[in-house]
Hints:
alpha/beta; Nucleotidyltransferase, domain 5; 6-stranded mixed β-sheet; single chain
Amino acid sequence: MRLLGIYVGLHDSNLSLWADGELRYAKSERITGIKHHQAALSFVRETCARWGIPAVDAIAFSDGNRNQLGSCELGQFWKEVLPVPAFGDARTFCVDHHYAHVLSSWPVVDTAQVELGFAIDGRGDHEARKTVIARPGSLRPELVHQNPTRSFGRLLERIGELMELRATPGNENDLAGKVMGAQAYGEIDHDFVASVDLDGLGERWYDAVDVIPWRGRPPAETPGFFSFDNPSFRGWLTTVHHLMALHTVDHFSRFARRDMEIAYAGGCAQNVVINEELFRRFPHISVPPHSYDGGLSLGCLELLRIQLGLPRFSTDGFPYWQDDEAASAPTAATIERAAELLARGHIIGWFQGRGEVGPRALGARSILMDPRLHDGKDHLNARVKHREPWRPYGASVLLEHTSDWFELEGESRYMLRSVAVRADRRAEIPSVVHKDGTSRIQTVGADAPAHYRALLEAFHRRTGLPMLLNTSLNGGGSPIFSSEAQCRDLFAAVDIDAIFMGNDALSKVD
C-alpha cells in the first residue's frame, strides 16, 4: 500500500510516504532554505510527483483546520473525512495534533507497547497544551488528561522576547532554545522555590513574569531586568527553569509509574535539561528526535498503519531519512584526512549520506571541532556560528567510552539529554562542558552511520579522545543544509577551515 502523512500547519511543514516497503520523508524548510517554513498543499503534490507517486491509497493529516482541511472534535483522536480534492479519492483521515505527536514516536518505540503517551507543546488543537493518552498505539486509545493552559515552552518564548532575542537570526520558534542555554548561569533560589505554589504556577506560567515578586518586584515591573548581563535575571531564570522541571516531573508522576513504557513528544520535549530529569525517573521513556512539529507527518502515517491493520513499519536508516541531496560514502582516506584536520584544531563541515530527521545534527550534517580547545566555543562562534555566547555546544561520543566521561546510564542516541560530565574530566573537554558542568551528548554506537563512527574512531586513535564537538551544519537563521551548493556558499562566507562532502573537500588549510 501507499500511505501518505501530511502536516502543513503554521510552521515546520513536512510529509511522510510509505510506499513499496520504503519510508520517505521531506521537510519543506530543507527545500526552500527558509527555517520553520510553512508550506501549502502544492508542496505535497510537487514532492509526490518528484518521487513518482501519482496516487496513494490513504492519507492522514494533522492540520487543526489551519488550511481548511478540517479538524477533530474536542476529545476526538481521529476521524475519517471526505477526500481532499487535490489527492483523488484516497481514504482520508484527520488526526488530532497531540495524538499525532505521540504516535510520531514509532521509529524509537513500538507504539503498541506504549502504556502512556505524553504531549506538551505551545498549542495543540482546541488550545490543548498538555495531553496524556493511554494505549496510544491501539485501536481504542483513551484520553487520560488534557489541559489548555500555557506550557513552559510559551514562557521561555516570552522570556526570549523580553530579552529582545527576536532581533537575532531565527524566529519565535527558536526563542525557547536560545533561552534554555542561559538557565545554567545562575543559582537556584531554594527559598523562592519553597514559597511558590507549584500547581498554581503550572496553570499560569506567565505569573512568574507579571505577578510573582522577585527581589521585591515582579520582573516585568523592573526596568532592564531581562538582560543576560543582569545577575538577578540569571538567578531568576535558573530558578524558574528549575520550577518548570519540578512541575513537569510532577505532571508525569501523577499518571505514570517508573516501570511504565512511556512516549513523550511535542515541542517541549526538545528541552534537554528537563528531559534528563524525566529519563532519571522514568527509565522506559522514549523521546523521538523529531518530537516537534517536524515529526507530525510520521505520526499521521502511524495512524494509518494502525487503522488499516498493517504490520509495523521498518525503521531501517532512521533517523537519516531526510529526502535531500545525498553524498556518496567517504573513503577511509577521506575519513583519515578529516580526523587529521580535527586533531590539529581545525573546524570542519561534514556533509555525508542523507540528512537527519529533526533539528539535531547527528553526524550527517554537522560542523565538528576538537572539544579540548579551551577557547573553542568562542572561536567557533566568532568564525562560523555567530550564536549567543551563553549557548552551549554538544558532543558526539563513542558509546563504549561514554561512561568514562559522562554520568550516563544507557544511551543518548539523539542528543536529547543534558548529562553531567564527570568532574575529573571536565577540564579536558572545555568546549563541550556547559556552565553547570553538563553536556548535551549523542552516543554513537554500532548502529550509527559507518562514516561517522569511523571518523570518531580515527580521531580517538590520534588524540586518545573518543568524542567531537558536534553542531548543525548551517548558517545563522537557516535550516540544516540539504545540498552541496549550500556548503559551498557557507565555505565562501565564513571562516571554516574545510568541508567534506562525500569524498569532495573544500579546504583552506594544507
